[in-house]
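In the design runs reported in the main text, the only information available to the sequence generator was the tokenized backbone. The following block is the verbatim input for one such run; it is reproduced so that readers can re-run the procedure and compare outputs position by position.
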């Protein structure tokens, strides 16, 4: 059962697992600090800013035996861009919970480093979508590529599991330079890889050269003996069938 504290899903408790609490990223005006060309979160949430007091909810959950949970997941928008992110992270440091985070990795938070040092982070999930500074700027409309790599390299030193996603955007990131750059980053971070499509265009078939690029990335990741999977549900039926024919 998913329990909605507010109807715009700023917070929910995944009760069927009884383990996971998910918080959305930011409030109106600071939902996110980048602007991915495929983002549907900031456009959906932009006028319906969550106004839940996250610290209040956390305190209730952590102090409640009934809702005892061992993982708090921050996702949607950019949690680390929240003005109160440092306060929330510092609050969690001595609590009996672990966290996971979906982040664009462009913001460094000292509280997060403390959680990593104390082995309290289950995983970090980042959509990188490219392997070059130039393409990063096109996809995210910000010049944060080097900063993101610096943060990921720092975080990876704490042996935390890192998931990197590559959302294919036709004629933007379906080229060899980006794919090989991305593979290099994955190797450095020992990352698990997810290959995906833009959920906005789920009914549209990808161009054949983009699907070829996705296959190329898949094989390059396999060659490097890293875990890799496709988010098949986000590809249209034709593309899904084609991908299913070559995945091992
Ligand atoms: S990082 Fe996430 S929330 Fe921010 S613009 Fe990109 S997809 Fe949207």
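Verbatim output:
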């Amino acid at each position: 059962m998913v329990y909605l504290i507010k109807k715009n899903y700023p917070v929910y408790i995944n009760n069927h697992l009884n383990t996971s609490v998910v918080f959305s990223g930011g409030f109106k005006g600071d939902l996110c600090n980048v602007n991915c060309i495929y983002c549907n979160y900031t456009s959906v949430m932009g006028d319906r800013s969550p106004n839940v007091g996250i610290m209040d909810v956390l305190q209730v959950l952590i102090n409640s035996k009934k809702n005892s949970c061992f993982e708090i997941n921050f996702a949607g928008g950019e949690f680390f861009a929240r003005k109160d992110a440092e306060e929330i992270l510092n609050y969690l440091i001595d609590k009996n919970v672990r966290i996971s985070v979906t982040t664009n990795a462009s913001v460094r938070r000292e509280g997060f480093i403390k959680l990593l040092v104390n082995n309290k982070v289950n995983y970090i999930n980042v959509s990188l979508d490219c392997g070059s500074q130039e393409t990063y700027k096109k996809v995210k409309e910000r010049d944060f590529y080097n900063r993101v790599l610096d943060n990921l390299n720092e975080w990876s030193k704490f042996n935390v599991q890192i998931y990197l996603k590559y959302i294919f955007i036709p004629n933007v990131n379906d080229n060899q330079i980006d794919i090989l750059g991305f593979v290099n980053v994955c190797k450095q971070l020992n990352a698990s890889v997810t290959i995906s499509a833009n959920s906005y265009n789920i009914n549209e078939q990808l161009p054949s050269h983009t699907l070829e690029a996705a296959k190329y990335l898949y094989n390059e990741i396999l060659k490097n003996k890293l875990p890799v999977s496709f988010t098949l549900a986000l590809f249209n039926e034709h593309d899904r069938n084609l991908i299913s024919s070559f995945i091992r």
